[in-house]
Amino acid sequence: MSQSPRDDHSDEPKKYSLSDVKLAISPFEDRLLKRLPSKEEILQRAKKRQHKKKISYAALAWFIAFGGGLYWLDPAYQTQQWQTQVGESQQIQLLDRSTVHLNSHSKITVNYHLFSKRIQLEQGEAIFNVDHSNWKRLEFFERRFIVNSGMLQVEDIGTVFNVRRYTADHNRVGVLQGSVKVRLLTDSNQQDLILKENDFYENKHNQLYRLNQIKLNTETAWQQGYVVFDHTPLKQAIAAFKPYQKFEVSYSHPDTQNILISGRFQLHNYDAFMQILPQLIDVKTVQKAKHDWLIIQSGK
């Protein structure tokens, strides 16, 4: 049985010329041209796209400028104030769950800003325990926690710290846990000073001084109702009772004020301290009136 010869080119695709393509689409050319945009329409659409981009960029720039302005201005939206009387203390919880332990005869004003919490210690002493997020990634979004005491400014880094105000230009800060940044408001060129745990500093006459031999238990004893002295001059020891009770003390001789005293005493019972004082140091105490005492040093 005979077979026809095989055509080696039967499976190859057919090639079309450009004229064949034009001929094939010529019946649809008018319809296609109607659907295609004109040159003027193409230019108009391009202008609209450029205009939308400009609006988007302008809106982004305005948003950045507005946000930067808000951050710089940091406006306050709420204020709270607390004050303790002579002989009382108060534990305060702020809106962010941070706590403030206010000592006797003390006063603070808390201003809540959009990006910070700013506390003014107007008188007395307070311990600040700042609450932080457990999520490290959220710490960047936490508001700054700043305490101003006269000319001294303390900013929390992750901290429990104590601030005591004597006068506008005499303040003390001590770090109980963590660290803080400290600066003097009178010197804008001064670099921030980083204080670590157990660091104590005092500012006097626009200068910062490091305090040595300060112990934590002496700084926080007032929270338990005690005062602790460790080779403390008598005048300074007497002054430690003054924020809790009103009384007067005079001395038979100026040198008596410099006698060193150590021990742990109840803050709210200065009478007992005055009565036991002759057993601790070589002095005699005389009660001239109900709240008036005289301390006489032997041989003076």
TrEMBL record:
GO molecular function: sigma factor antagonist activity
KW Zinc (keyword) present: no
Cited InterPro entries: FecR, Ferrdict_sens_TM
Superkingdom, taxonomy of origin: Bacteria
Transmembrane found in the keyword field: yes
Protein name: FecR protein domain-containing protein
Occurrences of domain FecR protein (ranges): 81-181
Residues spanning the signal sequence: none
